Amino acid sequence: MLKTLYKGFILSYLLITISCTTNQNSSDLIQAIDNRQTDKALRIIDQLDNLNEQDSLGLSPMHWAAKRALPQITKALIKKGCNLNITDVHGYTPLNYAIKADNAEIINLMLKNQAVVYKNGLSNLSDGPFVDWTEKGLYAYYLKHDSISSKSFLLGKFINQNTRYFKGWNGDTTTYTITDNKIPAWEFKTQEPIFVLGDIHGQYDRMVKNLQAHGVIDKHLKWSWGKGHLVFVGDIFDRGNKVTEALWLIYKLEQEADKTGGKVHMSFGNHELMVLNKDNRYIANDYKNLCNNLGLEYNTLFHSNSVLGEWLRSKNSMTKINDILFVHGGISQKQIDSGMSTQEINELVRQYLISGSSPKNQDKLNQILKSFGPFWYRGYFMDRSQYKKITEQELISILEALKVSRVVVGHTENDELSALYNGKVIDVNIPLAEDSIPNQALLIKYGKFFRLTEDGNKTLLN
Predict the structure, then answer these.
(1) Domains plus CATH for the chain?
(2) Strands, sheet with 318-321, edge to edge from the N-terminal-most edge strand
(3) E-state strands within 299-371
(4) Which H or E run contains 138?
(5) What GO molecular-function term can you cite, just one (predicted)?
(6) Looking at residue 15, what is its pLDDT?
(7) To 10 degrees, what angle do helices 342-355 and 362-369 make?
(8) How confident is the prediction for the chain on average, in pLDDT?
(9) Is it true that the peptide bond before 71 is cis, omega within 30 degrees of 0?
(10) If exposure means fewest CB atoms within 10 Å of the residue's CB, which of 94, 205, 241, 264 is most exposed?
């Protein structure tokens, strides 16, 4: 009898002790996180079942882990099933606190585990897919804001690493095939037609209409240019709100063209360099709103281990087809005087976008990346504070040094695709954001140069 009573006493004592310890540890957990005592917090997390208790301000342990920027504790809380979208007394989720703490690791961790933030007053927004190479495989995701629920969030999933093939979701019906990346050649000889487009700047719909109007792609957006060449002279990025769609289409057409003996060439423009170097000043407002809501920097969507980011960083700064050089801005005499070859510039810029500059290449990169360089130069069209407009004789000297007869450029806008300096320079940059200006493209065929318009007009250039 006494033994039974003693056992009952011990059991009751243990239950009371466990109950008290649980209540105490809930407060202790928040205190440990607040004091950044990681080991103590992790021990308490292992012991607790309810990890969603909130303090007087409505802050849960997950809020505190985000506030104190503690990724190890955040991971442990997520693993135990802690509510990522619990709100405090002001309506803020843990992700809001992670964004304010500016901790990219926690932000990405939360987003990939269905965290949301609430934002009123925005229309429906969506962008993607973005695809990352990760240790666990290929991870694809969209950024989204739903105006009805006022939520911004990420929709992501892993895709089949073996097939590298997936169908879009989130209202996206496109099929995507991921291929191994390779550095393209920069010199080509061909008798096939060459179709050239200027700066796209996110104007995907007008780009598609132009390609379809002239038979480069069909109504299903498939390559129909045979063995022909398609050239983009840079600036796919910025200003417009369909940059991602444009990049994926070029990525796909590149694969399809290779299968038929054709080629797609995409050179860097100054806006590619800006975005890949964390300069997000000119991105469209939709992108700014989505990224700001989710605590993301737009350029990080194209990091070097993302599919599009790796692909972009493989591209050339200049491409030569037959005796024509395709470059975004132009080649100045100062660039020629630097003694750098086209191939060296292509290699230096690629390396710069992967690893940055070093004392060994800093001087050369300064020459390439500034106003006299191939991405920013406007000397074929106007005086600038750094230089005067070039003369035809000076241009002839540059072309001779490059061993080409013509240069095709974008960068500087013109309402009409035109040839200058007796056909030695052709400017293909038509401002696509201006609907009143007709779509135009350059066709090079049988050694002749034509301005094409969407309505079917074909004009021989000088």
Answers:
(1) 26-114 (1.25.40.20), 125-176 (no CATH), 187-460 (3.60.21.10)
(2) 187-188, 318-321, 324-327, 406-409, 425-427, 418-420
(3) 318-321, 324-327
(4) strand 137-146
(5) hydrolase activity
(6) 41
(7) 100
(8) 94
(9) no
(10) 205
